[in-house]
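Hi R.,

Here's the chain you asked about this morning:
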Amino acid sequence: MGYALRNIPVEETAAPEGVVNVGGEWYFEEYSKSSGVPSVGLDDKAPQPPTDEERKSILDLFKH
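And here is the predicted structure, written out as tokens:
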């Protein structure tokens, strides 16, 4: 293709409406910068291990 396109200038295509380039990565405009979902709440507290009762009820699901 280099030979076939040797005299054709390189053209950058325009991004579709609502798409932005941030730091070389493409994003939908509503998810760029600091918008979007910053956390799903897992950093708020460490998960607790299941109680013995919860563990037993989970294992009971696999007895059949």
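One quick note: The first strand starts at residue 19 and ends at 22.

Cheers,
M.
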